[in-house]
Amino acid sequence: MTNSKTNVDKALDCETADPITDEVKIKSGGVTAEINKIDKSDKKVLLVYPQYPNSFWSFKNTLRLIGKRAAYPPFGLLTVAAMLPSQWEKKLIDMNVDRLKDEDIAWADIVFISAMIVQKESVGEVIKKVKNLSKPIVAGGPLFTTGWEEFTEDVDYLVLGEAEENLYEFLSDLNSGKTKNIYEVKNFPDIRKSIIPEWDLINKKYYNSMCLQISRGCPFNCEFCDIVRLNGRLPRVKTKKQVINELEALYQWGWRGGVFFVDDNFIGNKVELEKEILPAIIDWQKKRHQPFLFNTQVSIDLIDKPELISLMVKAGITTLFIGIESPDNKSLEECNKFQNKNRDLVSVIKKLQNAGFEVQGGFIVGFDNDKPSIFQNQIEFIQKSGIVTAMVGLLNALPKTKLYQRLKDTGRLVNESSGSNTAIDLNFKPKMDKNTLIEGYKNIMKTIYSPKDYYQRVKTFLKEFKPPIRKTPNFGIYHIKALFSSLWLSGVRYEGQRYYWALLLWSLFRRPSAIPYVIGSSIMGIHFSKLYTW
């Protein structure tokens, strides 16, 4: 018998003490009681997160300007680390902030790798290094779950799907010496079993934001999206006690700043969110004097729930990423984006901006119903809506999606997707002339991220943006670096200086409270302008 509690116990029961009024220590790592019993032998485990290529969300061109190395930490791998037996010695190498050395691999008894499709090239290099040193590999994550067939010879153990469902089985087999090559999930697990990531394995100063997950799954079934394949259509939600415990763990760890809710669709379960989760977050933020501001991903039907919008703003959610995809109703119907159809999308975006959100948008060109006019239509929509951060990509068929299967069945699939949201490649035969499609896409990106159009879009957004009064963030080195980088690079060194100064002066006299946003957006603009140089 033991009186100690595991992280799962803590995730399901936070009522042993008030995390604000009582002295409570919440461990950032831990294991379930079941897994802790599996293997009493000491093991050295190296957890490796491969490198991202320079892409839309990597911000490699600008993070160094503010003293950061990566936008986000490897949230999934940190959660897996926390699920491993506590007596195992663990080391995590995020190749986006550190170099993977041979001595790291030689130190380990076993190597865990987690990756997304876009990290595939780096994954190949990691596997080669590890195999050269004759260390066994355990691999999981979206890349391996949807494309495991490519890795059966090079990876010793493929743990596919969500770890709460099959990691215990793998560890049990590892202990008994009866392992299999592939461990697949039979069901989507109850994420109330999910535990707090082992934050102590990383250096917080390297990252621009932290991550937290409230739910998995999305009720929609867009043809090009692999979320339904990975996490299902029935959103599974953590308890409010779990969510508060995870927020408190980040707080106790010393983090102050941005937190990304990495949910597939944050509003997938609107009832639970409105009645339980958001009121609890609002209360916690008040007690802790708002240490975090949040960003997340939602579907456009958020606009139909004004009370939910109000709660999200009160909770400290400042930025929403929404998949707009196309202003064309036929293309939306083609890809099963029915929630976007027959709406005045520009009006919806402006209403959300008026409510206090910055709206970031995802757009796609290359649908079968797209005509050559789509390129100019996309430019006009993006400019008119004031979506400053507009991720536009060529349609690609991700493995195991409905789009992938349709194109394969009709003989139009050419190869596997790179997973990159900025790559100039197509893995299928488009209905539109290929050269017309690629040149049209390039023109969109060159236009919307030209200094003139970019800064005009920032101004359009700021005219609509009505944020609530919030606590002013603590001023630090981070902000000083951002200010001087903005003034020197955007105001002096790079092209488009007159548009930058015009916006800065407009903000100074018309919207002085928006000057920090102007500074931040100018730095992001540097990243985007460097990213799209063809």
Structural account:
- By secondary structure, this protein is of the alpha/beta class.
- Helix content is about 40%, strand content about 15%.
- The protein has helices at about 5-10, 35, 75-85, 100-105, 120-130, 140-145, 165-175, 225-230, 240-255, 270-285, 305-315, 330-335, 345-355, 375-385, 400-410, 435-450, 450-465, 475-495, 495-510, 515-530; strands spanning about 45-50, 90-95, 110-115, 135-140, 155-160, 180-185, 210, 215, 235, 255-260, 290-300, 315-325, 360-365, 390-395.
- The strands form 3 sheets. Strands 2-1-3-4-5-6 form a 6-stranded parallel beta sheet, sandwiched between helices. Strands 7-10-11-12-13-14 form a 6-stranded parallel beta sheet. It has a two-stranded antiparallel ribbon with strand order 8-9.
- Helix 10 links the parallel strand 10 (about 255-260) and strand 11 (about 290-300).
- Helix 10 (about 270-285) runs parallel beside helix 11 (about 305-315), helix 17 (about 450-465) packs antiparallel against helix 20 and helix 18 (about 475-495) packs across helix 20 (about 515-530).
- The longest helix is centred in the middle third of the chain and has 18 residues, at about 270-285.
- It starts with 6 loop residues before the first helix and ends with a helix.
- Mean pLDDT is about 90; it is low at about 1-35.
Which structural class best describes the helix and strand composition? alpha/beta
Rounded to an integer in angstroms, the radius of gyration calculated over CA atoms is 23 Å
C-alpha end-to-end distance? 66 Å
Beta content comes to 5-15%
> Helical stretch count?
20
How many E strands? 14
User: What is the averaged pLDDT score?
Assistant: 92
The rough form would be described as globular
Report helical residue fraction: 40-55%
Low-confidence segments = 1-36
> Could you give a short account of the major beta sheet?
6 strands, parallel
Arrangement of strands in the largest sheet? 2-1-3-4-5-6
